Amino acid sequence: MVGIRLKINGKNHQTDIDPSTPLLWYLREHADLVGTKYGCGIAQCGACTVHMNGNPVRSCVMPISAVAGAEITTIEGLSEKGDHPVQQAWNELDVPQCGYCQAGQMMTASALLKENKNPSDEEIENTMSAHICRCGTYHRIKEAVKLAGTKMNG
Amino acid sequence: MNNTNSRRDFLKTASLLTGGLVIGFNSINKAIAAEVIDPATIGHEFNSYLSIAPNGKVTIFSPNPEIGQGIKTAFPVIVAEELDVDLKNVDVQQANYLADKFDRQLTGGSGAIRHSWDRLRTAGATARELLKEAAANKLGVSISSLKTENGFVIGANGQKLSYGELVDAAAKLTAPKEVVLRDPKDYKQIGKWHAGVDNENLLVGKPLFGIDYKKEGMVNAQIQRPKAFGMKLKSFDAKEALKMPGIIEVVSFDNNVAIVGKTTWEIMQARKKVEIVYEKDGDLESTEDHNRIFKTHLDDPNNGSVMRKNGNPEAAFAAADKVIEREYQCPFLSHSPMEPMNFFAHVKDDGTVELAGPTQTPGKAVGSIAKLLDIPQEKISLELTKMGGGFGRRLDDGYALEAAKLSSLIKKPVKVIWTKEDDLTGGYYRPAVRYRFRAALKDGQITAYALKGVGMNTGNCTRQDNFPVGAIENVLIESVDYKSPITTGPWRAPITNFLAYAEQSFLDEVAENLGQDPVQMRLDLLDKAIKNPVGTITYEPERFKVAIEMAAEKSQWGKKKGVSQGFSVYFSHNSYVAQVAEIEKVDGKPTLTNVVAVTDCGIVINQSGARNQIFGAVVDGIGHAMYSNLSFKNGEPEQKNYDTYRLIRMNEIPNVEAYFVDNGKPPTGLGEPALPPTGGAIANAFAAATGKRLYSQPFNVEDTEVESYM
Questions:
Q1: Looking at the partner chain, which of B202, B339, B653 has a beta carbon nearest the beta carbon of A138?
Q2: B335: nearest CA in chain A?
Q3: By the CB < 8 Å criterion, does A65 face chain B?
Q4: Is A82 within 8 Å of chain B by CB?
Q5: How buried is B345 (Cβ within 10 angstroms: 0-12 exposed, 13-18 middle, 19+ buried)?
Q6: Which of A35, A59, A88, B207 could join A75 in a cystine, given CB atoms 3.0 to 4.6 angstroms apart?
Q7: Which domain, by its residues, includes A94?
Q8: Per residue of chain A (154 residues), what is the pLDDT tens digit?
Q9: Residue A8: which CATH number?
Q10: What is the ipTM of this complex?
């Protein structure tokens, strides 16, 4: 079987598992990166969100064959020291309750802010509504997105 | 036993033997690595809750499992306050299940802080006093001349001794039988804003949850359970599944077919190939059947269990000027925490059992597994992982039992995970219920109040002592429990999560009929409960009144121009929450813009965590009242994942204002109390804005127009 080459958080990976395996399960059970979560498996909740070439994608429906060669960033690779403006804002505002959905939320938020440091309420809601938070931390997520935007350079 | 306490005991013993550097083992989840341990880092355990090492490191153990309600942070705040160390300098660890060290190591009923308030403060204060005594001995001064601050004992002449340098001496002293606890007015940390102790690890994706758990040699498994309630397993054929890559074996037990394999994805593919035959074992109910059952049972005059009767309700209804009667109905609901059910079990050849996973009831899980496997509880260890939500789902030990049973059958360490479809179709739901409320009105008063409820597997589906009972002369509360094959369980604020909406909506209509302001009507009834209570009162009317008055003040009740307001108030899990929901025109469209929530939960431990619970419970309450629905066809749930089972999202929430009553009373619960009043508040706001009343949930099924208000 021809292997698949993946680039995750700047590191090269090579695997010959079934190429239709979703990236989510490669990350969690082959690459030992469990920060990306399983919430629904059908791209309805956003818990599995990672960056593919900087864009947010739902890894639960992305076969590894489709992301071969792309730059994948997971929550573990969002920053070197856990100090990405989004991570800082999330901590300052104490956003998480159970915390399970938050990695996915942060990945979408960070991609949004890279495009637009100062999104409107409507833009934030439209983007972040792809995510479900069962604990209801939406108010703080919204504030944290704005706070993170103020911390972004450039 | 692989847990922090036995590691510590091992290290203590080992250091005595070698008299110097100690080789120890650091075991977290997976990798076992040897490390060299400096004895200065070995903590002395003052009690189950805290240990301090000679190098000054303070560790606080949080016994109750964390579901997102913030207990892992709040408990240490209390201990740190009395101990006089800054929480930021403390290492907080989740304690494993240790029955001989901790009492009530469960998470449910919003009871953790209320139950442990005294013992946590005592634990911190006792350690503090021992450290002071050690310092007094060392300095040759009286204890009363000493004070503590931020990890130091400070003498009258400015002498400063760190806790670390006092630990060895303190360890030899006898703990005082009684300690003086800090006066709340002197609190430095209780009541302040504390960020979650897990944030640092969580925000960078460290493995924290049960579903992240890994162990050397572990296999994975998923379980196919009966597709419909009322069905049982007849036979299965795994021939094709066993040929699939990564599949190790397929076994059955009870009504389950377990597919065991190397990876989750491989198992997901293989389980589709298992051919299973089920046979009928009970009624295969559809939602239409439930509707019919509710009507029949509500109308039957002889089937109610009387839960409370005061005075002569029949006579009062007969003599009434007007009788108001309304019915309210809710569907079954899934708990659906974001992290699906999962559990790790290893039933070993040596007769011990290693367990790990997310559970709200570790004691129950260990007890059930001990019974199932006929193994004494002392031989069973349970590591408590962080939980990606609970809402009551993880009070059940079923999924833990399954994992243990499977491990004993296949003789391997196994982690069972549920897919989200398994979760949504797997039962243990919030029960469907229908209520019939009646009020007798005479001469501008409520002379009688009656409630009959029919619940599916609810037991008592009423809360017969809840206000306004106690303020009305003639009362009749009846409950009917219908046994359905659809399994049910406690769901955040059990029973009251829907009963409160029905009751508060009904009282709103009563107020309207009487021409009374709904807030004033509550206050008048509470005055009656104070002056002339009818029968047993299980709430404190004065506290109720304070919460209501504060909500009215904060929301400028009745005074906001162009704003339709709905009021609701509830007492549950020992806390009082009053809410006002507001609808106003935004771009010409009536929109639910705001909810004001006033809470009396006594002393607030952690400002941040407390506010999180209020906001979260309000969002939870609105979302389920508005959108969430589990319907049935021949025993099978019709909604199997989030494409059809709807949960509220960010673009559907109003603003929330949270206030706390500052009364210095002992802390009560917060995980649940803010949810019950929410449905009533928004339904009453809808009524104020449109004149239309809502009688069933989800509201968007009864009236599609309400969708546009969000």
A1: B653
A2: A134
A3: no
A4: yes
A5: buried
A6: A35
A7: 85-151
A8: 569 999 999 999 999 999 999 999 999 999 999 999 999 999 999 999 999 999 999 999 999 999 999 999 999 999 999 999 999 999 999 999 999 999 999 999 999 999 999 999 999 999 999 999 999 999 999 999 999 999 997 5
A9: 3.10.20.30
A10: 0.98
